Every structure is written in C-alpha cells, then in structure tokens.
Amino acid sequence: MSSLTLKNLPDQLLEQLRVRARAQRRSLNSEAMLLLEQAMSNDSCASPAQAGAAEQEAQLAAWARLSGRWPGGDAALTAMAAEVEASRTLGREFDL
C-alpha cells in the first residue's frame, strides 16, 4: 500500500481533522482516508468516463425535453427548412 505525506497543512485544517477524528473515534490517518474516499466518489473529475457519461445523459435529457416543442410541429419545421434552402444562392462564379 502507498503512503501520502501532506506538507504545509494549515494549523486550522489539522485541528478540524483532529476534532472530526476524535468525534468519530478514528485515527487522523483513518479520518483523512475516509474524507478523501468520500470526496473522490462524489467528484465528477475523479473519473473522466463517468463525467463524460453524466454530461451526455444531461444533454440527451435536455434534447428530449425540447423535442416536439417546435411551434406548428414537423410541418412548420419542414416548411421553414424549405424556405431557407430556397433563399440560398449559389454564390459568385469563379474559375480555378
């Protein structure tokens, strides 16, 4: 098992850790490990794959909420798309 040394730990933070450890009847080491485990399990940055999946699910949910909400339904959307296509120009002619 690996070890971790924390340097320049602020006195106030160390005291808070001591108080928590004492209240839970744990060693400083055990309390620090527990807090790290909890932070890592709640942190979306801890697992990029999980963070990506959560973001994708959120985007899909947003699209699902928006789907079918276009005023006039698909017919209006199709007509609008046709109007945009018809208004397009081919641009200027050029020679290569």
TrEMBL record:
UniProt-listed GO biological process terms: regulation of DNA-templated transcription
Signal peptide interval: none
InterPro entries tied to this protein: Arc_rbn_hlx_hlx, FitA-like_RHH, Ribbon_hlx_hlx
Antitoxin FitA-like ribbon-helix-helix domain ranges (all copies): 3-39
One Pfam family matching this protein: FitA-like_RHH
Source organism, top-level taxon: Bacteria
Name of the protein this chain belongs to: Arc-like DNA binding domain protein
The organism of origin for this protein: Thiorhodovibrio frisius
Lineage of producing organism: Bacteria, Pseudomonadati, Pseudomonadota, Gammaproteobacteria, Chromatiales
